[in-house]
């Protein structure tokens, strides 16, 4: 009888352990079973170098979303698709910029919310964008004398 009690408690312990592992896997994987609490938006850039799937999306320096994919459309624009939580509603005059964390850090998408009062619908396209500053291009222009003296 004592042996059956031990086997029962060991079985319960293993079952609780498996449930805990399943719970952690779902939480770390951000799995959702009861609807989505996020939506996607697209932004059109002339150059999206350095931004990849998994890059962060920030508003005022706070991470609010994640880049899902970066593709080239038929007109040779980079289309960056990112996901934001439903609690964040952006206006249609939002500006999307590609910034660099530090001097040579990772690139991310910075959103500057507008104030038009007209909300962006899910899967909408943001066309007010700023491509990243290309340091190599600036250095080559300076080295080869491509910076215009009259613009100072």
What does this structure look like?
With 152 residues, this protein is of the alpha/beta class. It folds into two domains: 1-31; 38-133, no CATH class. The chain contains two helices and eight strands. The protein has helices spanning 2-28, 135-143, and strands spanning 38-45, 56-59, 62-72, 78-85, 95-100, 107-112, 125-126, 129-130. Strand 5 (95-100) and strand 6 (107-112) form a beta hairpin. The model has no long low-confidence stretch (mean pLDDT 86).
Shape: elongated
Q: How big is the Rg?
A: 24 Å
Q: Which regions have little confidence, pLDDT < 50, spanning 5+ residues?
A: none
**Helix/strand order, N-terminal first:** HEEEEEEEEH
The number of distinct structural domains comes to: 2
Task: Count up the helices.
Answer: 2
* Tally of strands: 8
Mean pLDDT: 86
Strand order of the largest sheet: 7-1-4-3-2-6-5-8
Distance between the termini: 92 Å
Largest sheet: 8 strands, mixed
Give the amount of beta strand, in percent: 25-35%
Helical percentage: 10-25%
Write the layout of secondary structure elements.
Elements lengths: L1 H27 L9 E8 L10 E4 L2 E11 L5 E8 L9 E6 L6 E6 L12 E2 L2 E2 L4 H9 L9
Parallel strand pairs: 1-7, 2-6, 5-8
Antiparallel strand pairs: 1-4, 2-3, 3-4, 5-6
Describe what is shown at a glance.
The chain is of the alpha/beta class and about 150 residues long.
């Amino acid at each position: 009888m004592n042996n059956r009690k031990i086997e029962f408690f060991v079985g319960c312990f293993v079952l609780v352990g498996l449930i805990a592992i399943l719970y952690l896997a779902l939480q770390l994987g951000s799995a959702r079973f009861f609807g989505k609490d996020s939506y996607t938006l697209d932004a059109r850039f002339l150059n999206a170098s350095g931004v990849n799937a998994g890059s962060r999306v920030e508003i005022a320096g706070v991470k609010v979303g994640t880049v899902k994919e970066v593709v080239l459309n038929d007109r040779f624009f980079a289309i960056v698709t990112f996901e934001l939580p439903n609690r964040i509603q952006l206006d249609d005059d939002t500006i999307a910029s590609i910034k660099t964390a530090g001097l040579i850090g990772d690139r991310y998408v910075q959103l500057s919310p507008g104030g038009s009062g007209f909300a962006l619908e899910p899967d909408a396209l943001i066309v007010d964008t700023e491509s990243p500053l290309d340091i190599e291009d600036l250095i080559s222009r300076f080295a080869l004398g491509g910076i215009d003296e009259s613009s100072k």
